[in-house]
Design brief:
alpha+beta, five-stranded mixed beta sheet, 3 helices
Amino acid sequence: MKKYKIKIEPDALNDIKEISSWYNKRKKNLGNHFKQTVITQISSLKHSPYRYAIRYQKIRCALVRRYPYMIHFNIDEEKKAVIILAIISTDRHPKKWLERIR
C-alpha cells in the first residue's frame, strides 16, 4: 500500500495554532497536547485516508481524539496527497468554514 503525502493548507495551520493557544490559556500544556494529538492523527492519514467517509463536497472528516474538533481534508489521488483544509469545532456547522475557501 502506497503512502500519501500530507499537505496542510495555511488556514488549517492557523486553526491548529489558534486552538492550541486557546487551550494553553485554559490549562498549562493542554494546547501543546492538542497540537501533538492533531499532528499524530494527520500523520496517520498517510496510510489510510479512505477509511473516513465523505461528509460533503468530497470533504472527509476525522474526529480529533479527546477533543471536540474534526480534521477536514480531501484526497488528491493524482498527486497521492491528503490535503488538510481545516480543523473545525464539532459545535460549528461544517459549511461555515467553506466560506473562507470560496
